[in-house]
């Protein structure tokens, strides 16, 4: 059963079309990668799917709800890792997650569990601004899964993660529906069953693992 | 409702904790208002006779410019860190987030006023009374609500430093007029202090309600 259905998603920025008539259906529990060159429209598509942006035209249904009208309700069930980590540098890793746990309305116990899952328990009291870029990315991933979302939208989460990026992502993607944008074809192939390829804002098509390898 | 209050308090606590640790804003603002008073002190021929008529003007000028900086930073920092989107991606009410940001900015400006008012008394020889403090605090509430709303509106615009005063200052005029009158009377001029204070309360209620309603639309897009 499809958890996410997009029909004709189109996004214009002034006179430039960033995304053109994207149709998409993602099943519950499916992991889908989005590949494409820089400027292909990956981030635009992911921001729309995460309800962080509204498309110029087109329809989007997530978990049976109209994603353009029911954004607030859906955000309880969506986790989003954007390009920028979006953390508070003066607050510690733990304080960052505690703050977002209040906003998400989830119990504080989730903070320790999440820090352990993303491998940051040892640096929980260190200010986020003093963490390495990779650790900040781990913290951003932790924030995205803090409320145990059903749908996870990850925009190049591997960009600054270390060699164990795939293991971490596998752990956080487990039991969730995931849309993952990446430049790393091998990672996409390892983590996702299906891949959407974008070029100049248009869908070139979807492919299974085998096709991407070829 | 309880949840919204908890969110607003968490946002305010987060902003105040960050300011306490970085000490970016308040020390700079405190220095600014003291320098403004020193310049005004040299610029005007201050004596015991004209101080009560000049001091209120200097007070509001310093307060207005300090406020523009304090409220301008409220949302600009969130945009720079890309953390505003992370907050808005939660189910938390945008009004609660806005209220928390406005509360923190108000408290930071009050911290700055805690330097400004004694310094004004020191440089101009004016009284430091509860009447003056009340008028300034009441004006700060409404000014903070408006300042934070416009700060949120212009935060994503490149020319925000230019736009924020252009949008905010005209709507701060009621506070400057009523607050100015209240402070003048408190410093010895003739006039009706209670009426000026009542006006400030009215403006506070009006603008806090209006900005709370508008915040949802400003932050949600």
Can you characterise this structure?
By secondary structure, chain A is of the alpha/beta class. Chain A is built from eight helices and ten strands. Chain A has helices at residues 42-49, 71-74, 93-104, 109-117, 133-145, 165-173, 185-191, 209-213, and strands at 2-13, 16-27, 31-35, 57-62, 65-66, 78-81, 151-155, 177-181, 194-199, 202-208. In chain A, the strands form two sheets. Chain A has a six-stranded mixed β-sheet with strand order 6-7-8-3-9-10, with helices on both faces. The two termini of chain A are 29 Å apart. Chain B has 221 residues and is mainly alpha-helical. Chain B has one domain (2-219). Chain B is built from eight helices and no strands. Chain B has helices spanning 2-22, 26-43, 51-81, 83-88, 94-124, 130-154, 160-186, 193-220. Chain B is globular. The two termini of chain B are 23 Å apart. The mean pLDDT of chain B is 90. The A-B interface holds A 50-52, 72-73, 75-76, 78, 80, 82-91, 95, 99-100, 102-105, 127, 143, 147 and B 3, 6-7, 10, 14, 17-18, 21-22, 81-83, 85-92, 97.
Helices and strands, with pairings:
The complex is a heterodimer of chains A (214) and B (221).
Chain A: E1 2-13, E2 16-27, E3 31-35, H1 42-49, E4 57-62, E5 65-66, H2 71-74, E6 78-81, H3 93-104, H4 109-117, H5 133-145, E7 151-155, H6 165-173, E8 177-181, H7 185-191, E9 194-199, E10 202-208, H8 209-213
Parallel strand pairs in A: 3-8, 3-9, 6-7, 7-8
Antiparallel strand pairs in A: 1-2, 1-4, 4-5, 9-10
Chain B: H1 2-22, H2 26-43, H3 51-81, H4 83-88, H5 94-124, H6 130-154, H7 160-186, H8 193-220
Helix pairs in contact in B: 1-5, 2-3, 2-5, 3-5, 3-6, 3-7, 5-6, 5-8, 6-7, 6-8, 7-8
Q: Helices and strands of chain A, in N-to-C order?
A: EEEHEEHEHHHEHEHEEH
Largest interface: A-B, 29 and 21 residues
Helix % of chain A is 25-40%
Instruction: Specify Rg of chain A, calculated over alpha carbons.
Output: 17 Å
Largest sheet geometry of chain A: 6 strands, mixed
Number of strands of chain A: 10
Helix content of chain B: over 70%
Q: Major sheet of chain B, described briefly?
A: none
Calculate Rg of chain B over CA atoms. 18 Å
State which percent range the strand residues of chain A make up.
Answer: 25-35%
- Large-scale geometry of chain A: globular
Query: Could you spell the SSE succession of chain B in H and E letters?
Result: HHHHHHHH
SS class of chain B: mainly alpha
Characterize the quaternary organization of these chains. heterodimer
Mean pLDDT over the full residue set of chain B: 90
Note the gap between the termini of chain A.
29 Å
Number of helices of chain A: 8
Calculate the mean pLDDT score of chain A and round it. Answer: 91
